[in-house]
Design brief:
This protein is mainly α and 188 residues long. It is built from eleven helices and no strands. The chain starts with 5 loop residues before the first helix and ends in an 8-residue tail after the last helix. The relative contact order is 0.07.
């Protein structure tokens, strides 16, 4: 039987923090990894990643990308990072972009790796990743994977600088000066 307190209590419990599932096993795997127990850590991370843990997916992608405890495999790294990114993990989005821009096999797996990288940097930057915003600004300066656009570069440098990114602040100042500087008069 429901009382007049049932609905308010149910609502209150709905907003209580839920403990992160698999937090302890993930912490254990990371400790084992730091201690050099790659095989055991990979086993734990793979299990957690397959269960949908975005942090385990991110770390497993890192291990595959760098070949730590597993054979180096950029495609497997991207596979795991994309699973993590699907959960909204901005760091995973950034790593995917980085792999397309600087990787070997990842860059060969798509028609336009620069554009693919820009797309993922945009997603990571839009999700609040400062380094991705800075890198996206650089891409707009260079016209790499995007149309060259100094105003758009400034926009992304501002986003990154607003999050405390030091290099973005420097790039912002330099780019703004280059736009506001009057053109030199031709010599006669």
């Amino acid at each position: 039987m429901y009382s007049r307190w049932t609905a308010p209590l149910a609502l209150a419990f709905a907003f209580l923090p839920i403990p992160a599932a698999n937090a302890a096993p993930l912490d254990d795997a990371l400790k084992v990894l730091e201690a050099g127990g790659n095989a055991q850590a990979i086993e734990i991370l793979t299990k957690l990643a397959n269960e949908g843990n975005p942090l385990a997916q991110l770390r497993l992608g890192d291990l595959y990308f760098h070949g730590k405890g597993v054979s180096e495999d950029e495609n497997k790294a991207i596979y795991w990072w994309k699973k993590s990114a699907a959960s909204g993990n901005a760091e995973a989005m950034y790593q995917i972009a980085h792999a397309y821009l600087f990787g070997n096999t990842a860059a060969k797996s798509v028609a336009d790796p620069d554009r693919e990288a820009a797309t993922w940097y945009f997603q990571a930057a839009s999700a609040g990743h400062a380094e991705a915003a800075y890198t996206l600004g650089l891409l707009f300066i260079a016209g790499k994977g995007v149309v060259e656009d100094r105003n758009e570069a400034i926009r992304w440098f501002r986003v990154a600088a607003g999050k405390g990114h030091v290099e973005a602040r420097k790039a912002l100042e330099t780019t703004e000066k280059s736009i506001t500087r009057p053109a030199a008069k031709p010599k006669r």
